[in-house]
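Two quick folds needed for the group meeting slides. Do the first one here.
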Amino acid sequence: MRQAAGDAPQQRAGDGALAGSAHHHQLHVQDIRKAYALFGERRDGVIKVAIKPEPRGAGFCATSGRRAVLAALTRRARWVPRERSLLCVQAMAQEPDLRDRLERGEAIDLRGDGKAGGGLVLAVQAFGAALAARGDLDVQDWPLFSSARKGANVRAYLRVARAQVEATAQVTTPAIAVLMNEAAAETVDFAEGTTRGVYVVNTTGTPEEIALRYRLGGTVVTVPGDALGNEHLGRPLGNVAVFAALVRSTELVPAELARASLLKALHKRRLPERLVEANGRLFDAAATHVQIAQVPPGPHTDHRRTPFRGYDLLPAGAQSALRTAVANRTSGYGRPGVKIRFADPTSRCNGCSLCVVQCPEGIIEFTPDPERGAIVHGARFDDFCKGCRECVVACPLDLFSEVAIVAAPDGAHRGA
């Protein structure tokens, strides 16, 4: 079943029938729990709730003949035929939700993947600060990135528990996995270590499309963060939208508290008031664009890591060779959404060699000419180019250019 932010009923007990279709409706989890506690009974795994108006304040109401599926109670449910006067939902097997895990004393691990400069670290830090603002949780969050330039793959981790968090290892089996930039998924499996979980993805695709693209099972959450960033900030930054999606989908912190925590952090960074207000509006808007779907897990959603079986014949000290090997494609370190292209259909290259000298990757392909110099005929952009634009700036004939790359429905990237 799929739900979107804002689907909660506007009417309460005593206000008449619930809005929505005659077949299903999403309710707040807390409302359903109240309804079950007051009016429900469980027999043989079947939850039964009377379909009739209840006193105001009960938190649940449905008129005779109007069905409301209690999907929010278990997040996954199916109808069980019963008499007209009863609403019957068969609970399906599922793992405890994140709040239940905290109550049992378990830690919840989050891991995010993205590109340097894409806002991943800020999103995870904001979520950690909001959790800490509750006052009853211990939170650790930390980033992982190299000295590579903007556009390189980065990771961020977060671990939260009611007791003191003592584990200091990186997150390898996350309960929550975040994908800030889909370009990062070209070189890493952001769902690695999971078979099911909560997956939050910054994308314009639907949860069903994303689940199919990345083989995900469990709770799949999408939000068009870059588009919302362009609309409210004038830049394709999805960090605040992803933060809002985390708040909405995990239900670990109230939205009001999360919003206040975000604005406090932005003020602390001494951002201009207009930008703080714009980020607040972005947070509010993102809540209405979050889409959530429950996707059944299966063998195809297994992303568990292959156990390490040793280095085999690889000699000690071969790490340098691995980093520089031709087979080790590093173009994924490039800025998302753009690629460099070379075009010289009329053989205008004058052999100046400036691009060859300036390219930090040494990937310019050329043919030596005794009279004209190095005649360039291309470069290994798709394998190693990181989009530094040195060749674009250096070429006096503008034979190199930067082009936009758009994501196709199948997840591939093609020139715009």
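Then this one, please, same format:
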Amino acid sequence: MTTIRRLAAILAADVTGYSRLIGSDEGGTLARLRTIRAEVIDPAIAAHNGRLVKTTGDGFLVKYGSVVDALRSAIEIQAGIAERNAPIPQDQRIELGIGLNVGDGRGVAKRKRDGCWASWLRAAVRPEGSTPWGQPGPHQLDSSIARPTWCR
């Protein structure tokens, strides 16, 4: 059997401070999150040829055929969320931590009993110490992302 290898980019995202937000206003948080997903996240995924492959209560994983598409989608999502957060008090804002990973996607379709995408997720986790998403400032990119996106 021949293995088909494809380069894939994975975007992993989760809500920063989700437990705190749910604890202070569960209904409002879930309603705002549904609205953000429908009006910002899903359109950005579709506009950049992504495929939503897994969702959790406060996060999601998206597969892209291009690291450039993944990066553009992440930027669009963060810009849309930042715009929506502007009039909202800091302690009620929904902010996403987003990480990107690129690599050989041959194992991407495999599912395991303990969940799928584990190695991709570990590699895509946003580095600690970078500027919080949605705020201007330096963000960290793994070299596997920075190299393919340079000058694009």
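Slide caption for protein two: The helical segments are 18-24, 26-47, 67-85, 118-124, 143-149.
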